[in-house]
Amino acid sequence: MKYKTPLFTILNVIAIAALLPACSVLTTPRPATNLVPCPPPPALALSADQVLRYYTCLGTLPPADVASEYHAASLSFSETGSNSDRLKLAILLSLPDTGFHSTAAALDLVKNMPAGPEPVPSTLPDLALLLSMLLAGQQHADDSISELTKALSDEKVHSDFLQKKIDAVKDLEINLIHRDQP
Question: Which residue range is the domain that position 146 belongs to?
Fold first, then answer.
């Protein structure tokens, strides 16, 4: 019986050694990190999550691609008028530092979103409400900046006018001092 125990142990060790590398060959499925292609195809009904991913993706695109995406979204919205295309266009219009940036137009798009019956429950109207509040705040900030910029410009003109008067008074003083000297 002493011979069977070491043989059994040796067979177990060989079996484990043979099966252990097989475990490393198995791959575990990883979750997809980019479920929505960047940018999503036109006329695709998007969920709120996909709209947020779309916005995130736009930040990674070069300006030329963002401009072409704007033209594609504008064309798609004019053809379909869907809420998804409306939100995509509003997001594109709200992007700063673009040639087509218009907070007012983006705000108009989300405020006038039709609230018709939808075949499946959607969170897009809730997202549109949030976006409209954010865009209204941005519009207010833009208006404030414009007013302050104009006020600063007016103050600069007034400051320049006063500086010229101060310089004229100094010149007059210098002339008076030099006139009194022999």
Answer: 48-157
